[in-house]
Design a protein that fits this description.
- This protein is an all-alpha fold.
- The protein has one domain.
- It contains two helices and no strands.
- Helix 1 packs antiparallel against helix 2.
- The radius of gyration is 26 Å and the shape is rod-shaped.
């Protein structure tokens, strides 16, 4: 019977799985998208701030503004969607 010859991988060979990737989970574009999504979330939460009354005995209708009820939550939700997309996107080689 003939023995099979086993080849050992040579250092620096291109067959190893680790040499294929640079070691970072995200690429440059992923980080840009992450910061854009974070900016959307921060702006959305900043738009929700305020609208209260200085006097607790006086009711203020400012809390039912378009900015606080519609625009700000849409911005926050858009920011979270951008964050998910940035995490799931494969970095370019």
């Amino acid at each position: 019977m003939k023995k099979k010859e086993v080849r050992k991988p040579v250092m620096g060979s291109e067959n190893t799985a680790t040499s294929k990737y640079s070691g970072f989970a995200f690429g440059k574009e992923n980080y840009k998208l992450l910061f854009i999504g974070l900016a959307f979330i921060v702006v959305g939460f900043l738009l929700m701030i305020g609208g209260g009354s200085d006097d607790p005995n006086v009711f203020s209708d400012k809390i039912f503004d378009f900015r606080r009820l519609t625009l700000a939550p849409v911005l926050v939700l858009t920011g979270y969607i951008i964050e998910i997309f940035a995490i799931m996107k494969k970095p370019k080689d």
